[in-house]
Amino acid sequence: MSNFYETMLNNNLGRSLLKNVGLPTPIELKRYNPNQETYFEGKVLIGTSKGGALLNDLMRNLKEAKATVYFPAAAQTAADILAAADKAGVRAIGVETKKGMAEKFDALVFDASGFESGADLNQLYYFFNPVMRQLNSNGRVIVLGRPHMKAKTGEQAAAMRALEGFTRSVAKEIGKKSANATSVYVEEGAEANMDSAFRFVISAKSAYMDGQVLTVSKADANTYPDWHKPLAGKVALVTGAARGIGEAIARTLARDGAKVVGLDIPPAEADLSRVMAEIGGEVLLADISSKEAPQQISDKLKELGGGDVIVHNAGVTRDKMLANMPEHWWNMTIDINLLAEEHINDALIANKTINKGASIICVSSMNGIAGQVGQTNYAASKAGVIGYVQYMAPELAKKGITINAVAPGFIETQMTDAIPFMTREVGRRLNSLSQGGKPVDVAETIAFFGNPASNGVSGNVVRVCGQSLVGA
């Protein structure tokens, strides 16, 4: 897809012109590389709070990476880090962390699970302050903690909730490096379920997911599958798969090994057939808002042994100020963007077409979180998706099914190409990473939710927006 801004960055005159009009020059994001042996390659600095409970699991994961592990040699918890590294069979190197030090890092990871009150937050300062300038471009800052609503005291809840504010602010500080920051909350007893979340956020697959929070809950633990083919042997349904984000989702899930059933409306048959032919997928033509669609989908998935990943991506916009909006525009938007997903899920569950251990992923929007002028219908439908996901997560957990939502921000598609040039270029820069995302960025997050090892990740709503300045 053409990007005039990126073209101009390739010559000195273009860079000078864009600088003069006040548009920042972004560092290109590093995304998934199929030639990379494992999920992370580089230098990582590890820190932990007193009593950090996730250190052993952190080291266990790094054992599977091509990571060079460092730790602050003078930290009070240095012995704990060394002990965890020895247990995992990881070589950890002690370094003096100070401003101006020679060593640079690709990731800074801190286990804050041992925090008991706000007084412990100074440990974040002592670990991060000397090394923030040592983070490489496209680096990662990850803080691990416990869900604040399951804390043992109000003081501990405050400390854990503080981690979110910390990482969201750090994300804004390091965005100019195209680096991102994430909080990962791991419920007590869910340590064995954290692998998928940790590996995703430290990897290049999370390039455009910035300033976000993931929560990992207790569930049956699955061994992490092959990094490049985590969905091998799985069947995935993707609605709205003919083009744009839906096409990218279908291609990414197929890349990860899934057999994809691509669904779209009959007028999109040519595009859908082309995409499915290229990825070895199955074509399903249907209007998801029709009464017949849920059964059609159920029957198709049954032919393939049931569905393992259900992606509700299809949606419409019918934008107009509320005072001028026709009734049928309102109803169409709600029917397609919200009610159709509910009806399809109901049918798949009732017909036992969705397999145990399956994942449901719903595509919301940052406008469902922040709202937007002229989008009362669209924002209501996408906010409804979030409410549905959060309510259904504990209900579906009883059936061994996860459900999560992805809320995209400014993603480069044919629709954004049609926006007037300067409006589009400014819009691209209204986030911490100062650039628009690509459809594959949304797809990578969906693939993470669909990973069999993500069965402890449910009820999450994640924005893939480069930490947009709009909304929460």
Task: Give an account of the 3D structure.
With 472 residues, this protein is of the alpha/beta class. The chain folds into two domains: 41-216, NAD(P)-binding Rossmann-like Domain (Rossmann fold, 3-Layer(aba) Sandwich), CATH 3.40.50.720; 235-464, Rossmann fold (3-Layer(aba) Sandwich). The protein has helices at 4-8, 12-20, 55-62, 78-88, 122-128, 154-174, 195-202, 244-255, 269-279, 293-303, 327-350, 366-370, 376-397, 414-417, 421-428, 439-450; strands at residues 41-48, 66-72, 92-95, 105-111, 135-145, 180-186, 212-216, 235-239, 259-264, 282-285, 307-312, 354-363, 402-408, 461-464. The strands form two sheets. A seven-stranded parallel β-sheet has the order 3-2-1-4-5-6-7, sandwiched between helices. It has a seven-stranded parallel β-sheet with strand order 10-9-8-11-12-13-14, sandwiched between helices. Strand 1 (41-48), helix 3 (55-62) and strand 2 form a beta-alpha-beta unit. Helix 3 (55-62) packs across helix 4 and helix 11 (327-350) packs parallel to helix 13 (376-397). The two termini are 29 Å apart.
State the name of the first-level CATH class of the largest domain.
Alpha Beta
Helical region count? 16
Radius of gyration: 22 Å
Largest sheet: 7 strands, parallel
- Give, in spatial order, the strands making up the sheet with the most strands: 3-2-1-4-5-6-7
Provide the structure class.
alpha/beta
Q: Give the % helix.
A: 25-40%
- Count of beta strands: 14
GO molecular function, one term: oxidoreductase activity, acting on the CH-OH group of donors, NAD or NADP as acceptor
InterPro entries: KR_dom, NAD(P)-bd_dom_sf, SDR_fam
Protein name: 3-oxoacyl-[acyl-carrier protein] reductase
Family: Belongs to the short-chain dehydrogenases/reductases (SDR) family.
